């Protein structure tokens, strides 16, 4: 049987198979390991996984890739990021080190609001040009599917501009980039006091315009005591859901104000952050089938003493996911491997649980578990080849990357050239 390519001589393949709608409880510690295995790929899709000798005997191919005893995993699915912006905000990092909190900085005009003017002034071409090298670094670090949010324009024209930039990035770069509309990221300074008017703009002008543009798949909102209240969030989310957008939420990051409970009520695909989520919130997320996306790098960057309750969520049976939250201010982290490390060190997850959370469960947070997140026949051939002694090494190692190759839809999109291979 003819295929396009085969990958052979992998010491181990961590398939993350058998998840359905996400791995839960003890399943998160089962990486679905195949020993001394290979993969056959045709038209960008996995045809079969089997021992390397069987793959070589069964198929003919145009290209054979020797994994040289490396370890294979699914490509990372980064289900929460903000990569389309103009300037980074490293001055705020220094302010936090000097004792200012995230909320202090935001209320003083920093934070999200400080990114607005530059994005409003930038063209789509400028936003694309600035974002390409950021996302290329993420690709080199193993990300093969990336969710990208708007939310630094906060007026209709600028939000549409950011979404157009995300569309172009998806066309230019060799990975899948999923667009999320987040006009409710903050209240712009001109509506700092007049929330009702801005919410009317969001619901009656922005969301219809976003729907007509046809780029965004999700709508997200920052539900927190200093930003959108529960009732304000309910109004925006209800309108977005009626318009046909899938829902996400920044929920209970700093205070437990009922964000997780609202995510359950509204039928969100995911509820993200959850650093202060309550017992009732965890229970309701499980009952409603909402994926919790935890962002430990953000809390680490904010010097938080409290992290999301990953262990409680796993033991309760939630399909916990993790993501970088890459953004210009509170978390300038582009590495899913480092995010895994922090998930282990700060939230008590095992190495295998953290890999599960960065792959198949993260795919569930984008409603793409039928296509990506695990290495199984019929799924996209999104694959990382690691030059490591074992899976535990991924979160154990801090710093440089041990990724040898990255494949998207069966195509080699990054090569470290560690072995002199062109």
Report what the structure shows.
The model has no long low-confidence stretch (mean pLDDT 96). α9 (259-266) runs parallel beside α10 (279-288). This protein has 422 residues and is of the alpha/beta class. Strands 1, 2, 3, 4, 5, 14, 15 and 16 form an eight-stranded mixed β-sheet that branches. β9 (218-223), α8 (230-242) and β10 form a beta-alpha-beta unit. The protein has two domains: 2-74 and 374-415, Urease, subunit C, domain 1, CATH 2.30.40.10; 77-364, TIM Barrel, CATH 3.20.20. The chain contains 16 helices and 16 strands.
SSE blueprint and pairings:
Layout: E1 2-14, E2 33-42, E3 45-51, H1 52-58, E4 60-66, E5 71-74, E6 76-78, H2 90-97, H3 102-107, H4 116-121, H5 124-140, E7 143-149, H6 156-172, E8 176-184, H7 195-213, E9 218-223, H8 230-242, E10 246-251, H9 259-266, E11 270-273, H10 279-288, E12 291-294, H11 296-301, H12 310-316, E13 321-322, H13 336-347, H14 351-358, H15 360-364, E14 383-386, H16 393-396, E15 403-408, E16 411-415
Parallel strand pairs: 1-4, 1-5, 6-7, 7-8, 8-9, 9-10, 10-11, 11-12, 12-13
Antiparallel strand pairs: 1-2, 2-3, 5-14, 14-15, 15-16
